């Protein structure tokens, strides 16, 4: 683990990209220091964007949750893996129009919002996220489409999700099952891959080197930030970090977002509530 260096050499910052769970809240409990830090940054006009691997949330769900904690944000200040996956599908396969979706309503909505048809008829893309109503029939349709040449996109690689009582399989577990059946490697969108960070960065319109990536997990948040070329901040309020020498280390480690004393660049590129 790199030594904490929270009070030294903060880069000039024009924008912030941040994880949610473990940074702004733990389950249903707010992390007050973090809520207050974002409220302060909002007042000074520092643009930020939240990113989450959870494809079952809509941006409006996140807006409501943060509003209850006293932080009022706009839906376009949230990028979920569902939204990033839909935008990536649109950009990477401009000629495709038919998408078979296994996932929550939020994923189908995100796909429809970018102008793609959600259908099980001759899909050109299979898009998989967490679907708590997944069936063998849905997986059969996905497998058949992929074997017939459809592109294969997964929202996020999380294998195991914590619940109130224990654990449940994450999207990555069922995506892996379809990958095993077809022997086709999916394009994974969520952290630790950089796609969602790049989507957030394009919303902020800020330079990579002047945009902080904040997260509570080295294996996902920090790797995604590094791969997207951003300075990274690990906040130790969430999942306790595990030593893994193979993973890139965060540039900064803080125990609270209150420790972040960033010189804010003048003239932020866009207004807060665009
Ligand atoms: Mg987290």
Q: CATH superfamily name of the largest domain? A: HAD superfamily/HAD-like
**Helix and strand composition category:** alpha/beta
Q: Give me the number of helical elements.
A: 8
Looking at how many chains there are and whether they match, the oligomeric state comes to single chain
- Number of distinct beta strands: 15
CATH architecture of the largest domain: 3-Layer(aba) Sandwich
Our estimate of the beta-strand percent is 15-25%
Please explain how this structure is put together.
There is one protein chain. The chain is of the alpha/beta class. The chain has two domains: 15-53 and 192-259, HAD superfamily/HAD-like (Rossmann fold, 3-Layer(aba) Sandwich), CATH 3.40.50.1000; 82-188, HAD superfamily/HAD-like (Rossmann fold, 3-Layer(aba) Sandwich). It has eight helices and 15 strands. A hairpin with a 2-residue loop joins strand 2 and strand 3. The radius of gyration is 19 Å and the shape is globular. The relative contact order is 0.20. The structure holds magnesium ion (MG). Magnesium ion binds at residues 19, 21-23, 215-217, 238.
